[in-house]
Amino acid sequence: MKKYHCFLLITSILLFSCKEDKKNSNLMEIPVDIEQSLSFPLSEIVEEITAIELELTDESLINPDIMNLKRILICANHVIVAERDKILVFGMDGKFIRSIGSKGQGPGEYTSIKNLAIDENNKRLFVNAISKIICYDLDGNYLNESSNIQQVGSRIDINHINGTLFLIVEQVGKKDSKGLFNHSVLYRLNDDLQIMDSCTIRNSYFERPIMYTHFYEDFLLYCNTMAYLYFSEIYFNMCNPAETVLRDTLYRIEDNKLIPELKMKFKNNGIDMYGNKFIHLFNMYRSSRYVFAIYHNENNKNDYRFCYDTKTGKGYNMQDGFIDDIKKIEKRVDIRPFNTNSDMFYYWHTHIKPDDREEPNPTLYIGKLKK
After folding, report:
1. What's the number of domains the chain is made of?
2. Which of 13, 182, 299, 339 has the greatest CB tally within 10 Å of its CB?
């Protein structure tokens, strides 16, 4: 009976889904020169960078692979690191403090983690796991959880913004008179992790059910009192293309509406002469001053990072990431925004010394962007 009532609640709420506000004639367009490939130094856009060497113990071993390391948060002078199957807490000096939760299928346990969100005011941590959302306090104590949203679709990203918990969910393989499609929705949850409201992001049509991947999951971000959303297109195999439309717009969230904030302007809107997409935009977000994007160019099979300075009107296109001319890391670095404040970013690098008997944990670099 309880599940039946939950279903009725979700169904009734979906009837009141909000719609995108299209009344915005002053939409900023940001040109991207896809022929450009610069060596761009971090010092051009960064005020400062702090390095934290994360302590290695038997309990705090970190696998820094980009597909394994899901999200990093900073809260109450702690660094919280979420991997696919564990959550680790370090001090700002890098010393290991504790783990949160454990692997399993019981209350307060998770089988696989997608990402995290944090409520700093009430000192709560929300874990977006494969089968449920779990809430802990910052000492690692289990508070509550909900698996009701698992009945709705696949949960993609989560963030706690201005006292509200937001969740992106994608319902895969739905069907109507136009064919097969994926239905993407933004949900607002209450403190009991129940759905309070929803807003449709889009429907994406495709030819037949196939495997899909979201390469980057920083879709819900907070910056300068405002929440922003960019939900990337699904990267399809070219033999089974999605809609021939480039999803190129960043939205801000206001009063349960998606308001177009700005859009990326690619050559021919990312469509080639045969009507196929050659640009696949994976990720887009903004800070107070800068706009960042990651995209794939199908023509030369390369991935690019793009940075646009709204103050100077200049754009910078890079094939392999940024040059760290501040901390002097030899390889190019990929910066990733803090979802609680996109004026801050992080990246990591593993420094192996000649006398190291085992590979150490990576060093975490936290940066502050210029305004």
Report:
1. 1
2. 339
